[in-house]
Amino acid sequence: MSLATTLENDFKNAMLNRQKDLVDLLRLLKAALKNEMISLKKQELSDAEVITVLKREAKKRHDSIEQFTKGKRQDLADKETAELKLIKHYLPQELSADEVRKVAQEVISSLGEVAPSQFGRVMGAVMARLKGQADGTLVSQIVKETLNK
User: What PANTHER family does the record tag this protein with (predicted)?
Assistant: First the structure.
């Protein structure tokens, strides 16, 4: 079963069970998926495209949590945290920091002698190898510390 179908089924079940928060979130996710279908001019999205949209929505929630926390609006930050947790339920498991570090070291050794000024080149190669399996911020941090050793 595709990820989009799973989201649709969960939406229907949440409506039947009167889970207002889940219904609201899934409605937003369905709208984001619909917008992506329109922008790509497709009738259906592949699982990879659905995951891309879900990651984009998760990043929005993560940024909102930071802003609400800075603005001392813990009630709104808690709401966004709950939504982020639900979105992560649909996303595949990300690699751990140790696994990302191992991939970064492999890429750097395959590129040969690399200076810290070539961060962009290394970062591009690592991100291409991971293909969305890890958060870009974590990858950036690990690549920087690996290059500065």
Answer: ALTERED INHERITANCE OF MITOCHONDRIA PROTEIN 41, MITOCHONDRIAL
Residues 85, 21: Cα–Cα separation, whole Å: 12
pLDDT of residue 134: 80
Instruction: Choose among 71, 48, 70, 35: nearest CA to 133.
Output: 48
Contacts of 59 (CB under 8 A, 6+ apart): none
- Token digits for 50? 């659905």
Supply the DSSP symbol for 133: S
Residue ranges of domains in the chain, CATH in brackets: 3-90 (1.10.1510.10), 97-147 (1.10.10.410)
How many Cα neighbours within 13 Å face the side chain of 75?
Answer: 0
What is the distance, to the nearest Å, from the Cα of residue 93 to the centroid of all Cα atoms in its chain?
A: 10
pTM for the model stands at: 0.72
